[in-house]
Design brief:
The chain has helices spanning about 10-20, 25-35, 55-70, 90, 115-130, 160-175, 185-195, 215-225, 245-260, 300-305, 310-330; strands at about 5-10, 40-45, 75-80, 95-100, 135, 175-180, 200, 230, 265. The protein is α/β, with parallel strands linked by helices. Helix 7 links the parallel strand 6 (about 175-180) and strand 7 (about 200). Helix 1 (about 10-20) packs across helix 3 (about 55-70) and helix 5 packs parallel to helix 6. The chain is globular and about 55 Å long.
Length: about 325
């Protein structure tokens, strides 16, 4: 069994550790854990933390340079732009890594051109640099879209004209368009504007846990109707407000599989254990998902899913094949 994780913030840890003088961070810190968790492939995102909101462009540049410096010398990373680049992670000792973006606020100040020109040049340069995935907003409003969370000032504007421009560019470049973190107006605007399927890389079922970061039945059905996938999130706050455990996490898998079929369910774990101690600039309530605290617990999760009634074939699809097949169709050439 192998695992495709549609969402990881481990780049944030790489950047903070390298700023303190550490080197070879991916190989030393993350590869052993990912290997133990059976991870074969992962979408890793560049995310500008709230602490750097006053200068998102500068922070993004610093993040990108720092992370890519670490990856260039890593022995256990296989940077990919399509699934054709994938290797068998367990056999060759490398993790297949796809580059993504969580929040595009930084694009507004990409250069000295107009905002439209900045977006065009940013997409072009980032595509040439290997990026193949984008979430327009994190927990904020920006010049593209409105996101969920405390920073959106409860202004739910949806996609702007620049957000629609970005959607056309993303479609042209065949990027993965990700609706996780978008509020409902932006979600539906993106769903309607995109000519290609969209995903929600790390969101659970709102019917089971009423959190704005989770997706409604209507959103789940909409994603599935165009052939998209939803990645289940292991963060405790999105699983159950009272009892976040590996079992209540599996409840979300069962619910979505019953609603739209297991072929539209995947994993986007969003593990955050490696961010402890870093100054992110936001207050995060302490909590954990019992039995699914970190990537090393994933093999136990897969066994528990079979115990809950998923067939071995369904577990294989949810853990890897659904994400691999979807991305294979989207990221061609």
């Amino acid at each position: 069994m192998k695992v495709f994780d549609l969402h990881s913030d481990l780049f944030t840890d790489l950047a903070f550790r390298r700023s303190k003088g550490e080197r070879n961070v991916f190989d030393r810190i993350h590869y052993p854990k990912l290997k133990k968790g059976l991870v074969d492939a992962v979408v890793c995102v560049f995310w500008v933390e709230p602490a750097f909101r006053d200068n998102p462009y500068g922070r993004f540049r610093m993040l990108r340079e720092s992370v890519l410096d670490d990856l260039r010398t890593a022995q256990h990373v296989n940077l990919c732009t399509t699934t054709k680049d994938f290797v068998d992670a367990q056999k060759v000792g490398k993790i297949n890594v796809l580059l993504g973006l969580e929040g595009l606020t930084f694009m507004e100040h990409w250069g000295e051109a107009s905002i439209q020109g900045n977006v065009e040049s940013a997409f072009r340069e980032l595509h040439e640099g290997g990026v193949r995935h984008a979430i327009y907003a994190w927990n904020e409003n920006n010049f593209l879209a409105s996101g969920t969370g405390a920073y959106n000032e409860r202004i739910h504007t949806g996609l702007t004209q620049y957000g629609r421009q970005a959607t056309k560019l993303a479609n042209d470049y065949r990027w993965l368009l990700d609706a996780s973190h978008l509020d409902e107006p932006s979600f539906w605007n993106l769903y309607e504007a995109s000519e290609r399927p969209i995903i929600a890389s790390h969101s659970n079922a709102r019917a089971l846990c009423d959190h704005e970061r989770n997706v409604t039945d209507e959103q789940i059905k909409a994603i599935a109707s165009k052939g998209g996938i939803i990645g289940l999130n292991a963060h405790y706050a999105f699983i159950d407000k009272v009892n976040p455990t590996v079992d209540t996490f599996i409840d979300h898998a069962v619910y979505m599989a019953d609603l739209v079929g297991p072929e539209h369910v995947a994993f986007g774990f969003d593990f955050l254990d490696f961010l402890d101690g870093h100054q992110l600039g936001s207050d995060v309530e302490e909590g954990t998902t019992v039995g699914l605290e970190c990537v090393e617990k994933v093999p136990e999760l897969l066994m528990k899913m079979e115990q809950r009634g998923f067939s071995s074939k369904e577990v294989e699809r949810i853990s890897y094949t659904n994400a691999f097949d979807f991305i294979s169709k989207q990221l061609k050439g």
